[in-house]
Amino acid sequence: MNFSRMLPVYRISAFCWIAGLCGWLPLYAQALEPFNADECQAVYQLSPTEVQLHDNAHSQWWFVPYLPESEHNASKSLELMPAGDERFLDASNDTVLIRWQSKLSDALQRAGTQSYLIVRNGAPIRDMNDRIVGYFAHLIAKARWDSRLLVEQNDVQVSEPWWVAPLRIEQSAREVDKSDRIIPRMCFNPNKPVSEGAFDVATTVAATQAQVLGFADEHNMGAQSHLAIMDKGGAQGVTKDQTWFLVDALGKEKTGQSLAVTRARGQVQVVQVFAQYSLIRIDASEREVMRGTYLKRAQVALPPQ
Q1: What distance in Å separates the CA atoms of residue 10 and residue 154, rounded to the nearest whole number?
Q2: What angle (nearest 5°) sits at the alpha carbon of residue 256, between those of residues 236 and 242?
Q3: Cα–Cα distance between 153 and 9 in angstroms, integer?
Q4: What is the pTM of this model?
Q5: For the segment 55-86, what is each residue's pLDDT rounded down to a tens digit?
Q6: 140: nearest Cα among 86, 96, 110, 109
Q7: What does the buried/exposed string (b/e) look like for 67-89 if buried means 16 or more CB atoms within 10 Å of the residue's CB?
Q8: Residue 246 — left, alpha, or beta (φ > 0 → left; ψ -120 to 50 → alpha)?
Q9: How far apart are CA 94 and CA 101, in angstroms?
């Protein structure tokens, strides 16, 4: 993209030094600045991000449902740009730039008081008809304003100028990549509760079967304690803490769509519910779970044979 026509000319002057690579530091988003939806929209013109965080051995992450095309303009993150070379040298102590528009004359000053989260989107999760239903976003690193760099802004008198800001990567769980995104901490709410009773299922027949669509971990199969997405949600009567069985599905009954099940291979628990799908944790399984594995709701116990 040619930014020269859209963005003001900016100049960076600094004594740039690269410190030694820091060891891995845990990222605790809850300990950063508090969530502020109004400030987020005023300073960055972003829609706030409300998520329920989950942890694994490497980073924190959350599931992001797919937005219809009409909603993509309400971006929840900013583009991350190299401050110098077209690459990042390591996972920490690098300086990057972000650019955004704002109507506020003091937007740059306000932005300088914030910390920032660097996030990475995983591969899209698709339903069994190959339509995208969402993706997992991983928290990669934390960044703060880099006071060593001076970014000079031009044309800031226009109604919605483009701002350019320098950020220094402080804590990182893995190496930062140019395709990663930035979320200002004031735009990120990591304490969104799982909605209870948010779906009207009074006239809906509760689903008794489902399939696994994908996994939070970066591979195509899951094992015990891994988390996955299944293709049924609150609109089909799924609720948090429900137990479902991993089952062998041998075929469909002639009189309907119920699965003919002969053996339970393990069980999962629902940990977060969306409208059409749910996040599940694999509590026990005889074998690794694959995309497409069938699930049966635990209305009647099916002991493994």
Answers
A1: 7
A2: 30
A3: 7
A4: 0.76
A5: 876 678 898 888 765 444 445 889 888 776 65
A6: 96
A7: eeeeeeeeebbbebeebeeeebe
A8: beta
A9: 24
